[in-house]
Amino acid sequence: MQQLPYYTLSVEEALRTLETDPTLGLSNSEAAQRLTRFGLNELEPPQKTPLWRIFLEQFNDFMIWVLLAAVAISLFEGQYVESVAIVIILLINAILGVYQEYRAEQALEALKEMSAPTALAIREGKLITVPARELVPGDIVSLESGNKIPADGRLIEANALRCEEAALTGESKPARKNVEATAQLDSPLGDRGDMVFSGTSVSVGRGLYVVTATGTNTEMGTIARLMAEAEEGETPLQIELGRVGKRIALLVLAICAIVFVVDMLQGVDFSESLLVAISLAVAAIPEGLPAIVTIALALGVRRMAEQNAIVKKLPAVETLGSTSFICSDKTGTLTQNVMTVRDVLVGLTPVIVDAQRGVVVEEGVVNADDEALLFDIALSTNDARYNAEKELIGDPTETALVVAALLRHDEALARERIGEVPFNSDRKRMSTIHQDETGQREVYTKGGVDVILSLCDRARIDGAVVDMTPHLIDEIMAINERFAAQGNRTLAFAYRPFGADEELEGDHIERGLVYVGIMAMLDPPRPEVIASIKEAHDAGIDVAMITGDHALTAQAIAAEIGLPTDTPVIDGPTLEKLTDDELFDLVGQTHIYARVNPEHKIRIVSALKRHGHIVAMTGDGVNDAPALKAADIGVAMGMVGTDVSREAADMVLSDDNFATIVNAVEQGRVVFDNLRKSILFLLSCNMSEVLIVFLTALFPIAMLLPYSDAVGLVGPALLPVQLLWINLVTDSLPALALGVDPGSSRVMQREPRNPDESILSARSLTRVAIQGALITVGALTAYYGSALGWFGETDAHHTQTMLLTAVVVMQLLHSFTFRSTTRSIFSAETFKNKWLNMAAIVSFILHLAIIYLSPLQQVFHTVPLDGRDWFEVLLAVFVPLVLIDVHKLLTRPKQKVAVS
After folding, report:
1. Shortest CA distance to 847 belongs to which of 728, 706, 717?
2. Residues facing residue 417 across a β-bridge
3. Marked catalytic residue, from 139, 194, 329, 885
4. Which residues of 733-763 are buried (b: 16+ CB within 10 A; e: fewer)?
5. Assign residue 332 a region: left if phi > 0, alpha if psi is -120 to 50, beta otherwise?
6. If you ran DSSP here, which 8-state letter would residue 549 be given?
7. Strand (E) or helix (H) holding 492
8. CB neighbour class for 661 (10 Å; exposed up to 12, middle 13-18, buried from 19)
9. Under the phi-then-psi rule, with left for phi > 0, alpha for psi from -120 to 50, and beta for the rest, what region is 761?
10. Helical axes 658-698 vs 236-265, angle rounded to 10°
11. DSSP 897
């Protein structure tokens, strides 16, 4: 019953199919049976992921598995400090992950709240109030101006009915409704004039309809299903970090196995060999990396929120930064969602309406009396009105006429009516009859230009009334076509004197009219959009407009805001006929899509993603929600957007300003650049720690000294707890500070990052390897120099403390080399990141604490260092630091600049 194309059926066929009567409606018993059969008129609740499952998913990572294995082995060997420390870090990371990911799926709940709570339905011949959730197919429902429509249905009566469907179809003006089945099979929603849809509302007029679909079978329900079916993939950063983690973990396992076997072959007992292997695992895996990424993203989110971009999911920051294609809804996003009179034709004289300066004459001189009459007619044939809050309410077209009239005439007032002929879609016009204080009467008429001209036998031109000739009609129509070609909707206005003895009803009212002028209106672009789109193009980001409006209107807006208009325009019916492969071939060169449905938007996003684009979809309506979810990042409008679009999106613009998207893209790029710095810094540090543990295991002190001299120097070069200290304090704090580094001034003058480009590219890996090796050289110089007695007598704890301190100092200084890929560490710019300066100072103070405070010495197995020791440490690390800086300057990358 609910799957038929009722918009193609006549009223009688629809009523017969639904087995209902337009006068009696359903009986209570029949309604109850249908309620059992079809269910409640509400959407299915979302299936929520349990909190415990979200928590456990935080441990579904290969690096985490290796660390958990290290914890188990450490507990078995009695290394409780190391085990507890690792577990605490993992738990903190899991809690952070749960906090960010535990987002209830509220989009369907928002859809439910949009449904009308009650409805006026005819049951057993009586018009009664029925809970909207209890409506069933076959119910006869009454509609009035301002009503929310509770279920989909086929109109059986329509009296000047117009419905606000912008949130569902993308149309900027209310859709005219009628009872005739004029739509073809598979017509877009916006063309189904004999249907009304759940979740939309009545703008003006009255109507009666028969319910054809309820609950999840409505068009709103279809959107809900599309949202449920839309898959949310991982962001590029999540994919990359997962790949990096697996590589590190596999490499760690291989090296640990080698070191363990080598130690056993050298006669080291099982327990100590196992301890060395655990130390290596702890050294190689950057335990703090997930937390650093989360915190760096969170700080980026806070900066974006200060600029009116509210990010709901942390990885969306990085995704936005790598965006290469923005698919934007037109109505309310690129435009103001307010109909505005743009052009006026007074007789044959074109004028432009300007919101700041009133009416500006473009050509010739306008006759003041003719202009005043034109605006008088526009106000009088108008049902828009101001409410108690001084807000102008009514049909957007009529409110636009009022605003235009008041711009020119501050005290313009509509004349009192004594009669009217209402508008309907067949007549395409309306007329009102007015009488002034002297008793004189006039008819004012407005409507479609061709319709009005056909009713006129005279025209008012430059203050004089002249006969309407074919040549004059051609002149007027030529100007009207120019307006229409710019995407405007046009209305013509006319009048005639009305005799005191004429009847107030009848076809004679609209005969023998005098043409006065034309008004052309458009939903104008947001003022800031033009500059924003240019900035996007300069940053290598393409933009496409996706709208439910007509192609001509979309092209006009595109021309105004700077989108290419020399590329093909694809409308919904055309798109419907395209195969996925055909759409794939066209989507890269198309910037305007018109008359599209929600399903089309998802196909467009999918085709762009097949091209390798990182796609951002912006929008504010219910119709945008599935595509917002399917895109790499969904961007919703916060002020005029629906609850559905806001809940489905990854980011919400609190000011509805398209320019905010550009700022968010910039912040996203800065955040990713900083994350790259942090990740490569951590990996270079961990590389050095792996090399240190690996080389000291292969070449222990005992191999370099006689047995008697090596007594007391046997054991790992660095203990697991010392390595964990390096990773979580002296590595993590500087890495976090790098994550909030100020962005480059050229960040928006380069191409978007290729999503296939790895963080660990061959160039990056080479840099990490060289830097890790140079840090290792400096640290081992201090270690072996101390062990071999270059700096005086020593023991195991002193040697470990010298090595630990050399690693800490080297890595803290090394963090400053990552501030820039082009500048030397000895430049004035190096110390302009106050957070990095503080991180280095705090980390160094903490390190001093574990060396000189007795309780911490016992935990970390350290001893105090004297002045000579510190001099030797600084000497050992200075030369590698200079070599790292020289290598960076010799291999600095060349940036690709985007071509706009």
Report:
1. 728
2. 434
3. 329
4. bbbbbbbbbeebeebbebebbebeeebbeee
5. left
6. S
7. strand 489-498
8. buried
9. beta
10. 0
11. B
Q: Is 448 helix (H, G, I), strand (E, B) or coil?
A: coil
H-run or E-run covering 314: none
**Cα–Cα distance measured from residue 514 to residue 497, given in angstroms and rounded to the nearest whole number:** 9
Tokens of 897: 């600049």
User: 392 with 406: CB under 8 angstroms?
Assistant: no
Say which residues have a Cβ less than 8 Å from residue 514's Cβ, sequence separation at least 6: 456, 458, 459, 460, 465, 494, 495, 496
Element holding 759 (H helix, E strand): none
| Distance set, CA 596 to CA 170, 191, 548, 569, 857 (Å) | 8, 11, 5, 12, 69
CA dihedral 870, 875, 876, 881 (to 10 degrees): 120
Q: How far apart are CA 672 and CA 477, in angstroms?
A: 56
Hey, is 827 helix, strand or coil? coil
Residue ranges in 9-61 assigned as alpha helix (H): 11-18, 28-38, 51-57
Entry field: residues in the chain: 900
Task: Report the candidate in 646, 638, 650, 635 with the shortest Cα–Cα distance to residue 106.
Answer: 646
Cα 265–Cα 270–Cα 272 angle in degrees, nearest 5: 100
User: Which two tokens mark 570?
Assistant: 């694809």
Provide CB contacts within 8 A for 327, sequence distance 6+: 544, 546, 601, 604, 605, 608, 615, 616, 617, 618, 627, 631
Say which residues have a Cβ less than 8 Å from residue 141's Cβ, sequence separation at least 6: 119, 120, 121, 122, 135, 150, 151, 153, 208, 209, 210, 211
3-class SS of residue 700: coil
List average pLDDT for each run of 10 residues in the chain, which is 900 residues long. 80 93 93 93 71 76 67 72 68 64 40 55 90 93 82 90 79 83 84 89 85 89 66 58 70 78 74 68 65 70 80 74 86 79 91 56 74 91 76 80 78 71 77 88 93 95 94 94 85 94 85 95 86 89 85 85 88 91 92 83 92 86 74 80 68 80 85 84 86 80 52 62 75 82 80 74 82 90 77 73 91 88 77 89 92 87 89 88 83 53
How many of the other CB atoms lie within 10 Å of CB of 863?
Answer: 17
Using only C-alpha atoms, what is the Rg of the chain? 37
> How far, in whole angstroms, is CA 875 from its chain's centroid?
52
Does the annotation mark 673 as catalytic? no
Cα separation, 262 vs 257, whole angstroms: 9
Rounded to whole angstroms, the Cα distance separating 375 from 576 reads 43
Residue 434 CA neighbour count, 13 Å, CB half: 20
Q: What 3-state class would DSSP assign to 618?
A: strand
CA dihedral 192, 197, 199, 204 (to 10 degrees): 70
pTM, entire model: 0.64
Alpha-carbon torsion 788, 794, 797, 801, what sign? Answer: negative
CA distance 431 to 421: 5
